[in-house]
Amino acid sequence: MESIFRPRRMGHVNYWVDDWRAAAKWHNDIAGLQEVYRRTDLKGAFLSNGNTYHDSAVFDLDTPRGKGQKPGLHHLAFELENEVDLVKGYERIADYGFKFDFTLTADIAHCCYGRDPDGNRFEVYTDVLDDWRNRRNGDVDASGGRNQWEPGDTPPVAESCYPVDPPIERVDDAVLHTKKASHATLVASDYKTLYRHYTDLVGLTPLVGGPDTPFVVLGGTVGEHSLTIFAPIPGVPTGMHHGAFELNDPNDLDDVEAKLKERGADVERVVEHGTRRSVFVRDLNGSLIQYYLAGPESLSAIGKLKPAEALWVA
Length: 314
Prior knowledge:
By secondary structure, the protein is of the alpha/beta class. 17% of the residues lie in helices and 34% in strands. The mean pLDDT is 95.
């Protein structure tokens, strides 16, 4: 069957944290991500360098919504071309036998949230205004039901409102200089079921591998790497292994381990591969994050690796 949605790419990856202010400062100091706006009603900070209205966000566990959660993935979000595609997909989800947990408006974006078969929360969304810098800055309070929205409540926007070649800002004294959220890597409890979810429902396309390989690299309509899914790997917990951010400065990974350790960052691994150079860092709550620069080799080179090796490249 035709996929329900057709995302362009992964738009952002958000995290549950113990201290949202400390986490936001860490992302600024280490990765050069700036706070675009905050939600004090949710104890959340939204972080970006201009690529979009947020490439990541951190939410405090000490809130009603954080009750019962643990540090780690809050959700992955996949950006659609426009609101027409979002509403059409939403109207077809019954064909797939799926139900979203909730929908909402973030003023400049309309969003649908659910959980994949492994329980990871995901979002499909689309920007509906292109002037996010004036609508989303400072302290944004959307409490009191002002974020309620259902697909079809308003005439769907047919135009594409995502930023095109936006200027990327730079935090000079940060160790790394992040361009954008790129992709995430999941280790599945049931590989084929999770594969079907992200291809048949979310609508990502295999770039490397497929349903009968040990892992798959998935992308959206723009062809970027958006998600990697691995079949179970002995000794590796299921769930999100890492979120990934592309860097904007080709010099960032020179002597990177020493520079990060000097700032007190927990460096897990530095990886040199033809597809990308990467450093894997644990944030304040132990979530693993990959920061990378693209290499000369195509993504197909990842398919030649064994799963335990590919996990630290993809």
